[in-house]
Amino acid sequence: MSAWAERVLEAAALRAGDTVLDVGAGSGALTLAAHDRIGEGWVIAVDPSVDALEELLRLAHAVSANGIMYLVGDAGVLPLPNASVDVAVLGSALVHVADTGSAARELARVLRPGGRLSLHDPLQRAGELQAELEACGFADVEAAMDDRPPPGLFLSARRS
User: Of the four listed, 95, 133, 135, 140, which is most buried by Cβ atoms within 10 Å?
Assistant: First the structure.
């Protein structure tokens, strides 16, 4: 697993039985690693690409990873009910979102009170994103830019 993915999952403070949302799951680096850490919990992989989700499904079957749900969607419109996940993780997903405010509102909507958010993104609008998350009721928002490859923003927060 890459260093950025490890850092995202460490900051997410995953616990056994958590329901984890991986937004922009792509090929599943965060999905599969989170699945390994939560035991009987669920990982919900959301991605706008059916092809990416099919590849993730193939990889998950190759390692007998049960407890993963695959949904087509994106950060701006998450196909989940309110307060349905404990943790949201994102790896390079917000760079593809024109309106980070809508993504912040969607993350706040689907996270349970006390839910955790952790992400890495090449997004350069760290201050803007931090303010949007705080406006949506996130607390303990910590953001740091990292110049090491791949460069980008590491951010963690908790939903109030």
Answer: 133
In the chain, where the domains are located: 3-159
Q: Over the stretch 81-127, which tens digit does the pLDDT of each residue have?
A: 999 999 999 998 988 888 999 999 999 999 999 999 999 988 777 67
Spell out the residues 6+ positions from residue 18 whose beta carbon is closer than 8 angstroms to its own.
38, 41, 86, 87
Phi, psi of 68 (to 5 degrees): -120, 130
- Across the chain, which has 160 residues, the per-10-residue mean pLDDT values are 90 97 96 95 97 96 92 96 98 89 96 96 79 94 83 91
- Please check whether residue 53 is in contact with residue 119, taking contact to mean a CB–CB distance below 8 angstroms: no
Fold of the CATH domain 3-159: Rossmann fold (3.40.50)
